[in-house]
Specification:
- The chain has 386 residues and is α/β, with parallel strands linked by helices.
- Helices cover 46% and strands 13% of the residues.
- It has helices at 8-22, 39-49, 66-84, 96-107, 130-139, 149-157, 171-179, 189-195, 215-230, 244-254, 268-277, 288-295, 309-314, 324-336, 338-345, 356-367; strands at 2-5, 31-34, 55-56, 89-92, 112-115, 143-146, 165-167, 201-206, 234-239, 260-263, 280-283, 299-301, 317-319.
- The strands form two sheets. Strands 3-2-1-4-5-6-7 form a seven-stranded parallel beta sheet, sandwiched between helices. It has a six-stranded parallel beta sheet with strand order 10-9-8-11-12-13, with helices on both faces.
- Strand 4 (89-92), helix 4 (96-107) and strand 5 form a beta-alpha-beta unit.
- Helix 1 (8-22) runs parallel beside helix 2, helix 1 packs across helix 7 and helix 9 (215-230) packs parallel to helix 14.
- The two termini are 37 Å apart.
Length: 386
């Protein structure tokens, strides 16, 4: 079988699957193909998890467009699939790589398995282009690995047969538990100094979504600038994204503030261990909504909606949009209202238990007739559990 991924988030979440499959060489021959939709950030994750690709399409170009990525992945995978003819192609989530890879597999008449299947907002422009990427990939999928019962229910409503869906939990939790360690030392001495500070609360910031580019991103950083200058005892640790549409706005609007530290995107081990040392996380990311609950860190989400409503219902995420006053009100409340903070920090984790990759491997064995029963389903802990 073949796995295909191309971005840092995909690599993080597919690495546990690659390792779970390779742990059973008698049953699986795993071919790893990367598109390198994100070159540098992808390579960091591959190094951390010790994965050497069998095929590297190396599609990334400066200021690449979605059309360019899509066509490059389609063309590159055509030859790879013709050469290897896998029994199934595993894609992940909602990246443009995943959508294009599923389409390439369809053209080659290769079955598709979709890890992190069934997430939906049902708003095709939010998140953009991710919502339609995952829906197109889902339409081409033969075996769906849904992270939660809600994701499975979305697929059932769309007409997917129940015997083609397995509820596994999210592999992001597997990767996180693999990586977070007490006593972790950061490569960047500035961050090592920051996490050792006493008497301050660290707020980790990471914003990059395409639907927030332009004026929404500027509103976000105006709010953060006001928060950093007006709220005592706070330091903002800001990951300035490599895409200039996000990173340049962060640098323009936050540079020079004593209470702000700007840095380039970190290697994955430093990133998740930094999450574990912060007071809360402010983001427009999808994956951080899954990771933060495992660390007991509240998430303030700068988006209008989320394809992960389980996090909102569990109380681990609060959605604030991109209006300045909404952002400021919520951040200030989390700083000043200890009961509110503790409710969010202590909420249950609805996304995983660290066994998602093993469930996916077991589901594949069952699908191919190598196991007599399907794997157990992931069930989130009851509301109120910590």
């Amino acid at each position: 079988m073949m796995t295909v991924f191309g971005t840092r988030p995909e690599a993080i979440k597919m690495a546990p699957v690659v390792h779970a499959l390779r742990a059973d060489p008698a049953s699986f021959r795993v071919v790893v193909t990367v598109t390198a939709q994100h070159r540098e950030m992808l390579d960091q994750v591959l190094d951390h998890f010790g994965i050497v690709p069998d095929h590297d399409l190396d599609v990334m170009t400066p200021r690449q467009t979605l059309t360019r990525v899509t066509t490059a992945v389609l063309e590159g995978l055509q030859a790879v699939l013709a050469e290897d003819r896998p029994d199934i192609l595993l894609v992940h989530g909602d990246a443009t790589t995943s959508m294009a890879a599923a389409l390439a597999a369809f053209y080659a008449r290769v079955p598709v398995g979709h890890v992190e299947a069934g997430l939906r907002t049902y708003d095709k422009y939010s998140p953009w282009p991710e919502e339609m990427n995952r829906r197109i990939a889902g339409a081409l999928t033969d075996l769906h690995f849904a992270p939660t019962v809600r994701a499975r229910d979305n697929l059932l409503r769309e007409g997917v047969s129940a015997d083609r869906i397995h509820v596994t939990g999210n592999t992001a939790v597997d990767a996180l538990l693999w990586t977070v360690r007490r006593g972790h030392r950061f490569e960047d001495p500035v961050l090592e100094e920051e996490v050792g500070r006493t008497g301050v609360r660290l707020v980790l910031v990471e914003c990059h979504r395409r639907e927030n580019w332009g004026e929404p991103m500027r509103r976000i950083y105006r709010a953060l600038r006001r928060f950093a200058t007006e709220e005592p005892g706070v330091r903002l640790l800001v990951s300035a994204h490599l895409n200039p549409e996000a990173g340049e706005v962060a640098r323009e609007m936050l540079s020079g503030l004593d209470s702000v530290v700007l840095f380039r995107p970190l290697p994955y081990p430093d990133w998740v261990n930094l999450m574990a040392r912060c007071h809360l996380i402010f983001t427009d990311s999808g994956g951080l909504q899954e990771e933060a609950p495992s660390l007991g860190r509240p998430v303030v989400l700068a988006r209008e909606n989320t394809e992960r409503p389980e996090a909102v219902e569990a109380g681990t995420v609060v959605v604030v949009g991109t209006e300045e006053e909404n952002i400021l009100e919520t951040l200030r409340r989390l700083m000043r209202d200890e009961a509110f903070y503790r409710r969010m920090a202590g909420a249950r984790n609805p996304f995983g238990d660290g066994r998602a990759a093993r469930r996916i491997a077991s589901a594949l064995l069952y699908h191919f007739g190598r196991a007599s029963s399907p794997p157990d389903e992931f069930r989130a802990p009851p509301a109120g559990a910590c």
